[in-house]
Each structure stands twice: as C-alpha cells, then as structure tokens.
Design goal:
The chain is α+β, with helices and mostly antiparallel strands. The chain has a single domain, classed as Roll (2,3-Dihydroxybiphenyl 1,2-Dioxygenase, domain 1), CATH 3.10.180.10. 22% of the residues lie in helices and 36% in strands. A hairpin with a 4-residue loop joins strand 3 and strand 4. The longest helix has 11 residues.
C-alpha cells in the first residue's frame, strides 16, 4: 500500500536558523518558506537525493505546531510522510484494518498541492504518519 518515503517533518523554533543550518552547514538545497494557512504552518523543504526534510514552524496562534513547540521547545521530529497511489483506497483499507484517520477522514491539500491524510500516532508505534497521494 505505501510507497516511497516522501519526507520527514521536523518542527523548529527558528525557521530561518534551521534553513541556514541545512543550507550553509550541510550544503543542502533549501526551498523558500511557504505559509500554509489551512494547516497553520510555514514550511521549508530540504531536498536530498532520496527524500526530503520538511522544516515546520507555527503560523498563527492556533497552530498545532505551536502546541508541539510548547511541549518540545527545541523542536523535534513531528511526522513521516509516505506516498500512496490512491489516498481514498489507502484510507479505506487502513480504516478496515483498525487504523484511525485524524480529522474528519477526508483528504486535505498539503504542501505539495496534493491530497494528504494523517494517521493517529498511537496506531503506528508512537509516530504521526502522513499519507500523500502521488
């Protein structure tokens, strides 16, 4: 059902400093910041040969990432994202197998302009899982 690892998301308290760390210290290609109001985050993507790193920073007072930073002020890994061919089929199969889909269960458009869903971390070894249709 799942395909390639699309990205690993890391919440950061300072987006500019984190982007500079990946760009200047590690020599990676780093995108410009992109605000995603529907998700309450600003994202930066770090391109690697085999995947991407998504740096997340809160956008607005009600950002779920803001609550994450309250608990983890230095930031940390937030989720992993796997690619799927058909997000509705993947959702239905996972629900039939007992996995919990967060929110209303309907895909939303994610950072890449593609449908995404999130799966409950308690169902996946304590890790928040994002599925992205490719």
């Amino acid at each position: 059902m799942i395909g390639k690892l699309n990205h690993v998301a890391i919440v950061v308290p300072d987006l500019q400093a984190a982007a500079a760390l990946y760009r200047d210290t590690l020599g990676a290609t780093v995108s410009e910041p992109e605000p995603l109001e529907a998700h309450g985050v600003t994202t930066v993507f770090v391109d690697l040969d085999n995947t991407r790193i998504e740096l997340l920073h809160p956008l607005g007072k009600d950002s779920p990432i803001g609550r994450f930073l309250e608990r983890h002020p230095d930031g940390g890994m937030h989720h992993v994202c796997y690619e799927v061919d058909d997000i509705l089929d993947a959702r239905d199969q996972l629900k039939a197998r007992g996995a919990r889909v967060l929110g209303d269960g309907e895909p939303r458009i994610g950072a890449h302009g593609k449908p995404v869903l999130f799966l409950h971390p308690k169902d996946f070894c304590g890790t928040l899982v994002e599925l992205e249709q490719v």
